[in-house]
């Protein structure tokens, strides 16, 4: 994070915190979220959306690729995205932060991971690092399993092959989809066959499978991952109360793993996953709403939230 960006973020969020008690139309306008089609991002956005609606805000959620979302944020068609990954998407995000068009509100998940992984039986056999892969190339069928074509994770793996990093020049990236990749992992999870695949956390794969993330001595995957909430600078200025809430909405990684498991693995309805979790976790919700008001600019947010909760019973 640059000094310029840090100063901008601090100034805008300080303004937000100083203005949250002020009533006005700006605070009651629709909050326009966008999210890439990833289960964790989808549920997290739905939780934020439902919570804001209980405070009296209107919300909408658009699904799109990260590139389209960033253009929408800059163009004024989208207000908030809660799924910007660092460092893998930093190259797309940082120029827009530098220009002052966008604000990185908060790292909403700490300890996230996005890198090459193997199942437990492969880890137990001694494959602990990307440097161990080439020695066992035949067991892996010289293949690294990725997700949709064009994904940055696939590109990192392909770059490793092109550059002969870790002796992988004769390997290939198998691009598929999240579902396709995990189906391959499931098929090869019998202890006999070996799979190296693109893994990330939070995701239900970390709940269902024994996932281990490979060491990367050459730093191909960058520093430790985090996930950011990003908003347009114009939105932060005109909706400081919402910005204050978003700054406080930090999600424990085990919570988002559970969200993704319920939504993607158990295939529970999105609205129910988010709503049931909110109802069952008033203490966490209270932390997120501390010092925030409802959309009317006067009622304490937690009071309005509980009134809405009781009205639904």
UniProtKB/TrEMBL annotation:
Entry keywords, A to Z: Signal
Species: Halomonas urmiana
Lineage: Bacteria, Pseudomonadati, Pseudomonadota, Gammaproteobacteria, Oceanospirillales
Entry GO terms, CC: ATP-binding cassette (ABC) transporter complex; periplasmic space
Record's protein name: ABC transporter substrate-binding protein
Coiled-coil ranges per UniProt: none
Example of a GO MF term: transmembrane transporter activity
Pfam families: OpuAC
Gene3D superfamilies to which the protein is assigned, alphabetical: Glycine betaine-binding periplasmic protein, domain 2 (3.40.190.100), Periplasmic binding protein-like II (3.40.190.10)
GO biological process terms held by the UniProt record: choline transport
ABC-type glycine betaine transport system substrate-binding domain boundaries: 30-279
Domain of life of the native organism: Bacteria
UniProt keyword Cytoplasm present: no
N-terminal signal peptide: 1-28
């Amino acid at each position: 994070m640059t000094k310029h960006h840090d100063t901008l973020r601090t100034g805008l969020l300080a303004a937000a915190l100083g203005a949250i008690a002020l009533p006005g139309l700006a605070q009651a306008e629709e909050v326009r979220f966008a999210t890439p089609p990833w289960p964790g991002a989808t549920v997290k956005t739905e939780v934020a959306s439902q919570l804001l609606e209980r405070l009296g805000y209107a919300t909408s959620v658009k699904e799109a690729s990260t590139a389209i979302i960033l253009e929408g944020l800059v163009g004024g068609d989208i207000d908030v995205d809660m799924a910007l990954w660092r460092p893998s998407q930093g190259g797309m995000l940082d120029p827009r932060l530098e220009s002052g068009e966008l604000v990185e509100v908060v790292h909403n998940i700490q300890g996230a991971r996005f890198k090459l992984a193997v199942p437990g039986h492969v880890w137990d056999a001694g494959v602990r690092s990307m440097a161990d892969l080439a020695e066992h190339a035949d067991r892996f069928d010289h293949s690294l399993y990725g997700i949709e074509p064009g994904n940055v994770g696939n590109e990192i793996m392909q770059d490793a092959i092109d550059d002969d990093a870790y002796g992988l020049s004769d390997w290939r990236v198998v691009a598929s989809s999240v579902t396709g990749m995990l189906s391959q992992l499931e098929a090869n999870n019998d202890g006999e066959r070996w799979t190296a695949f693109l893994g990330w956390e939070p995701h239900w794969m970390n709940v269902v499978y024994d996932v281990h993330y490979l060491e990367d001595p050459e730093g191909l995957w960058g520093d430790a991952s985090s996930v950011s909430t990003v908003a347009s600078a114009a939105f932060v200025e005109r909706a400081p109360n919402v910005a204050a809430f978003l700054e406080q909405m930090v999600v424990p990684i085990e919570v988002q793993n559970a969200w993704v498991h319920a939504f993607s693995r158990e295939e529970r309805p999105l609205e129910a996953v988010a709503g049931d979790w909110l109802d069952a976790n008033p203490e966490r919700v209270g932390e997120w709403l501390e010092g925030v008001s409802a959309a009317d600019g006067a009622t304490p947010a937690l009071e309005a939230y509980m009134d809405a909760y009781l009205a639904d019973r």
